[in-house]
C-alpha cells in the first residue's frame, strides 16, 4: 500500500507544482496596467481637418476578433466554441470587416476586440496591422487583454493579445490608455481582461479646444459591480474633459442596454448572459446618449446566428455619449445580419457647436 500511495503523492505534488508554475508565469507576463500605454501610428491618408461648426461622422463596432461571425457561437454565452471554426472563417470575417469600414468611410472609427498581435483564437492573423495597412489612416491602439496562455476551458483559449483601436482621417495629436477598475481578483485576474478607456485627442482649427474621442469596451461577464464602477469612472473622465472646454464623444460596447433597448428586445432566457442597464438620469445636465433601437447592435452567441430562431437574443448595447456642445444629427445601426461579428456597426453623425 505504501508504494501506490507514494506514487500518488508524487503525481499530486508534480501537478500542484505545474499549476503553481503556470500561475507564476501568467502573473509575471500579464498586462501591466500601470505601464501599458496607447500606441499611435501615423498614416499618409490622415489629412482631414475639423473646426467648430463642422459635421463629423463616427463609427463604432465590436468586431469580435473576426471570430464571432454568423457561423459561430461562444462558450461563455451558452454555446460550445472557444474560437472560430477555422482560419478561413476568420479571414472571411476580416475581409468583411475591412471592407465595411472602408465603405462606411467615417471620419473616425472605434473598433473593439481587434487583435493587437497574433492570438490563438484568431489563428495568428494580424488584424490591427491589416487595418492600419489597408486604410493608411492614423491609428491609436490600447491593449485590454494580454495573456500568454488562457488555460480554460477545454480545449483552452490559449494566447490572447487584443484591444481597442481608433482610426482617424485627421492627424491624432495624442492618445492615452486609462485603466478602469476591475472586479476580478487574483488568480482569476491574470487570465482576464484589463479594461480601459482610450481617449484620442484631435486638434481643432481656430480654437484651443480639442475633439476628445473616447473608445471603450466595458465589463461583460461580471455581477454588475464592475460595469457600474467603470461607468462611474467614464462619467468622471468625460466631465473633466468637457470642463477644459473640449468637445467630448465616448462610444463603443457598453455591455449595458440603452434606454428602451429591453422594451424592443426583451430578455428571453435569464439563465444566459444579460446586459446591465443605462439610464438617462446617470448623465450630467446637457449630456445625452446617442443610440438606435431600430435594429439590434448585438446578438447572444449561444448558437450560430439564426434570425428566425426563438433562441436568438438581441440587444442594444453599442452607442455613444455626447457632451452638451455636440449636436446629434443622426445615429443608425448598420444591420448587416451579424455576418462578420456578433455586433452590428453603429454610425453616428454630429455637428460641433
Give an overview in words.
The chain is of the alpha+beta class. It is built from five helices and 18 strands. A seven-stranded mixed beta sheet has the order 1-4-5-3-2-18-17, covered by helices on one side. Strands 6, 7, 8, 9, 10, 13 and 16 form a seven-stranded mixed beta sheet that branches. Strand 11 (256-257), helix 5 (261-264) and strand 12 form a beta-alpha-beta unit. It is globular and about 85 Å long. The N and C termini lie far apart (83 Å). 42% of the residues are buried.
Number of strands: 18
Low-confidence stretches: none
Largest sheet: 7 strands, mixed
Question: What class, by secondary structure content?
Answer: alpha+beta
Query: What share of residues are in beta strands?
Result: 25-35%
Q: Write down the secondary-structure element order.
A: HEEHEHEEEEEEHEEHEEEEEEE
- Strand arrangement, major sheet: 1-4-5-3-2-18-17
- Radius of gyration (CA) equals 21 Å
Percentage of residues in helical conformation: 10-25%
- How many helices? 5
Average the pLDDT over all residues and give the rounded result: 96
Amino acid at each position: 500500500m505504501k508504494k501506490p500511495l507514494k506514487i500518488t503523492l508524487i503525481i499530486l505534488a508534480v501537478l500542484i507544482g505545474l499549476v503553481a508554475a503556470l500561475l507564476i508565469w501568467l502573473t509575471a507576463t500579464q498586462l501591466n496596467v500601470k505601464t501599458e500605454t496607447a500606441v499611435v501610428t501615423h498614416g499618409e491618408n490622415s489629412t482631414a481637418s475639423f473646426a467648430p461648426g463642422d459635421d463629423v461622422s463616427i463609427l463604432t463596432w465590436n468586431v469580435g476578433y473576426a471570430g464571432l461571425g454568423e457561423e459561430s457561437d461562444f462558450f461563455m454565452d451558452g454555446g460550445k466554441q472557444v474560437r472560430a471554426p477555422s482560419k478561413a472563417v476568420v479571414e472571411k470575417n476580416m475581409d468583411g470587416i475591412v471592407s465595411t469600414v472602408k465603405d462606411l468611410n467615417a471620419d473616425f472609427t472605434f473598433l473593439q476586440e481587434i487583435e493587437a498581435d497574433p492570438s490563438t483564437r484568431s489563428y495568428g492573423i494580424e488584424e490591427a496591422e491589416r487595418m492600419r495597412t489597408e486604410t493608411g489612416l492614423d491609428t491609436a491602439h490600447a491593449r485590454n487583454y494580454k495573456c500568454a496562455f488562457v488555460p480554460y476551458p477545454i480545449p483552452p483559449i490559449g494566447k490572447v493579445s487584443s484591444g481597442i483601436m481608433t482610426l482617424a482621417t485627421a492627424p491624432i495629436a495624442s492618445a492615452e490608455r486609462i485603466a478602469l477598475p476591475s472586479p476580478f481578483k487574483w488568480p482569476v485576474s491574470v487570465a482576464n481582461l484589463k479594461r480601459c478607456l482610450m481617449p484620442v485627442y484631435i486638434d481643432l482649427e481656430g480654437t484651443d479646444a480639442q475633439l476628445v474621442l473616447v473608445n471603450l469596451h466595458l465589463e461583460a461577464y461580471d455581477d454588475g459591480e464592475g460595469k457600474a464602477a467603470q461607468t462611474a469612472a467614464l462619467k468622471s473622465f468625460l466631465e473633466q474633459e468637457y470642463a477644459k472646454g473640449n468637445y467630448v464623444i465616448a462610444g463603443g460596447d457598453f455591455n449595458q442596454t440603452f434606454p428602451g433597448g429591453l422594451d424592443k428586445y426583451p430578455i428571453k432566457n435569464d439563465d444566459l448572459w444579460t446586459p446591465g442597464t443605462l439610464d438617462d438620469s446617470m448623465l450630467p445636465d446637457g449630456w445625452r446618449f446617442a443610440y438606435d433601437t431600430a435594429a439590434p447592435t448585438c446578438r447572444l452567441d449561444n448558437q450560430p446566428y439564426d434570425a428566425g430562431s426563438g433562441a436568438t437574443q438581441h440587444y442594444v448595447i453599442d452607442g455613444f455619449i455626447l457632451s452638451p456642445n455636440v449636436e446629434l444629427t443622426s445615429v443608425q445601426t448598420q444591420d448587416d445580419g451579424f455576418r462578420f461579428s456578433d455586433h452590428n456597426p453603429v454610425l453616428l453623425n454630429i455637428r460641433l457647436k
